[in-house]
Design goal:
heterodimer, A: alpha/beta, two-stranded antiparallel ribbon, 12 strands, 21% strand, B: alpha+beta, Protein Transport Mog1p, Chain A, 30% helix, 28% strand
Amino acid sequence: MMNRRDFVKSAAAAGVALLGPRRLEGAAPALAIARYKSSPTAPDGIVEEARRLTRAGIDALGGMGRFVSKGQTVWIKPNISWDRRPEQAATTNPDVVATLVAMCYQAGAKRVAVSDNPCNSAQRTFPRSGIQQAAEKAGAQVFFMDERKFRKMALNGKILKEWPVYAEVVECDVLINVPIAKHHSLTTVTLGMKNLMGAVGGARERFHQNTELTLPDLAAFFKPKLIVLDAIRVLTGNGPVGGSLTDVKRKETVVAGTDQVAVDAYGATLLGHKPQAIEHIVEASRRGLGNINFEALSPKIIEV
Amino acid sequence: MTHHLCLFWAALLLGALVTTLPAQEEESGARQAPAQVPASEKARLAKLLPAPRGPGARAEEPRFYAADLYQYIDGAAEAFHMYDLVAMVHREYKAGDAEITVDIYDMGEPINAFGIYSAERSPENHYIQAGAEGYIDEHVLNFLQGSFYVKLSAFSDKGSAQPAMRSFAGEISKRIGGAAALPAILETFPAAGRVARSEKYVKRAPLGHEFLAPACTADYRFAGKQSSLLISTSADAAQSKKKLELLRGYFAKSGKVADEPALPGAWRGSSSREGETIFFARGRYTVLLLNPPADAAAFLKEVASRMKD
């Protein structure tokens, strides 16, 4: 039986099919790029930057009310995979996450969950990243994934036919994918589609053998309603683990969008790559999961 | 330009990495890390771990990884396997106000340890005397010694974690023992004009050509011009000559190639991918200089004179 989330997804897909990739006059934008004019160094300044950029990006898309309705459950999926502090740019900026939590509640969400299936120990990554504290302070339910709650689901992908997925992620009404832009030693870049690996379990090393196909399989299955890419600090080398501050560069940008391919495509450019050179982005575009030519979406650029 | 050269080498390293994923390891002949870490290797690695010391100090049980390294560092594991990782040990410590993670990778041979170390380091790192070479910043200290690549990560809520990392590094270095020196092949690279800490060991498909493996590379700056020197090592002179012929064939097919008049026995090729390149063979070495400067012949003669057969 189709649940509310599936119905909304289908209706949205039908709407996009009718509208096509170009934004019609008056239609809500699919991509917003918020840039900060300065580069604060003080901790309070960086917190303020994250809050303002995140709000600006979502407001440019029409506000959180476009994505979250009263009484809905929301799953925010940041990158909490590594035992790293925010300044090391291996995990999502905690204040981007906290701002999204607050905006969801302001839009009327009944419950906002924040979690990830990390590579390092969750007992370390959740507090070290700052996300646990920031998200909880904003009212989110932050928890470690329970191994027993992974369920084998039919992904029906080109490579991934069946795979253990964290059940709550697909049972929620709204999925917001919140990656951080990073170099990746295997896939060149890790952005939104790669971030979805944190919503599944099982032998995830299997993904590494055909990431150009497995990542689009994930993207096709989850189809997040909203993607918010943290590019305030980006990891330019030794990803995905990082560690050295030498590999961190400030890009002072938050990208928000409904087109996960377009968000990844733009994110690739922030890391110095042409999206057409990133195999999983090309494949996802080829499958119709979004638009690799993000310029065609007429993104809204906001200078904050 | 430095940024573009870095992207160039990063892209080629990535290309080499992608060609050696587990599904293709057998074709490339790479040694597979054992599925389980043998007891003897566990004992060997465990001996390198410092004991927790100081008031309130404690450490978790060490964990060992080999073929399953992905469980700890996800896709980053592939780079270690490309350099023939034998096994690694991971341990978490609490020492005073600092929390320290110790990761010691046994890469089997010093050149492999240098390979993965050089792939991760950057000329911009802050270098210190640790092992054969190391660098430190706010939360990490990585160093190379013998066949081992040691990576420390530390956090402290009260002051800097660097003193704790330095102390641990010193202890581990003592336990590893032996001579702390960089691979001898690096002495073939002339010092003048060399970009410090740009030297790398590429085990698979240097410049995208598997036949050039393995090779060492380094970046140079000559009067504002950026060049790259690649020295491929062979088992003997015959194999080195074969590589030379393959290179000639590659440039003839993809661009153009002709005698290099300034350097008898050398060739000058050009292609859209490598750009302008001078290459030659000497003994068991095949040498390429990408984007050569005007007086490349003198430089390459010096390279040849430094080669030890």
